[in-house]
Design brief:
254 residues; mainly alpha; 2 domains; 15 helices; 70% helix; 0% strand; disordered N terminus; disordered C terminus
Length: 254
């Protein structure tokens, strides 16, 4: 068989790689952006529920929109609206919201070494440090992909959340309760999707998740709103303390 004939019949290694990439879907570099936009759209629409809940609790439409623009941390915003709706003071609601949002400061410490933002951009990026942007960024294999994923998720969620808040606040009078839209399950469902790959990683990860869920459920009836989430994080701290040195996950992966 001649070299020319062999070359015609046997694809080159580069050709095989290109064909494999075409079959497997978009290149890995595009996945952080795709995943960030998909998550942003899924989570952002739940801003409708916040807008409606905020107005129903006694806030004005512009106050609800200002919270989404400036605070931009959904759980804390819902906590504030819940305290006001139950008759609590604005000061108590704000304190609870700040306590619940305090976890974002810990996210920021972790992301600072991954994103390495220039000093002038830190205030803007700090606004985008939330559960979803952190999860997308930390799931990436390198710093470049992490920055792309963080940016795409931040922009998409920020725009969608604020537009949805406005829609929910303006249309609150036409909705009997935010739960009637079924949007109250979007946030938990999206977050479960984010942590699912971690749950499949091994027994230690599943044990931490189960312990965190038990702590949160057990403390919800007896502590203020937002505190159970923070207490649940002690499960991860305990796992980190008992992990063997040099092996943060431990040897018992499945």
């Amino acid at each position: 068989m001649s070299a020319q004939r062999a070359g015609a019949q046997v694809p080159s290694a580069g050709g095989e790689a290109a064909a494999g990439a075409a079959v497997s879907g978009p290149p890995r570099a595009a996945r952080p952006v795709r995943d960030g936009i998909g998550l942003g759209l899924a989570v952002g629409v739940s801003g409708i529920a916040f807008g409606a809940a905020a107005v129903s609790s006694g806030l004005s439409a512009w106050q609800a929109c200002a919270l989404s623009l400036l605070a931009f941390t959904g759980a804390s915003q819902f906590a504030l609206a819940g305290v006001i709706a139950s008759g609590g003071s604005l000061l108590a609601g704000t304190a609870g919201a700040i306590l619940l949002g305090g976890r974002n400061a810990l996210y920021g410490l972790r992301l600072a070494g991954v994103l390495r933002p220039p000093r002038r951009r830190k205030p803007l990026l700090a606004l985008g440090v939330i559960d979803e942007t952190t999860a997308i960024a930390l799931a990436q294999p390198d710093e470049s992909s992490a920055r792309k994923g963080f940016t795409a998720t931040f922009i998409c969620i920020y725009l969608t959340w604020n537009l949805s808040t406005l829609a929910g606040a303006v249309g609150a009078g036409h909705v009997a309760a935010p739960q009637t839209l079924g949007l109250d399950v979007v946030g938990p469902a999206a977050f479960l999707a984010l942590i699912w790959p971690r749950l499949k990683a091994g027994r230690r990860e599943r044990a931490v998740a189960a312990a965190g869920a038990v702590i949160a459920l057990a403390t919800t009836p007896i502590v203020p709103v937002g505190v159970p989430v923070i207490l649940a994080a002690t499960a991860a701290l305990a796992a980190a303390l008992v992990s063997p040195a040099g092996d943060p996950r431990g040897p018992d992966t499945a």
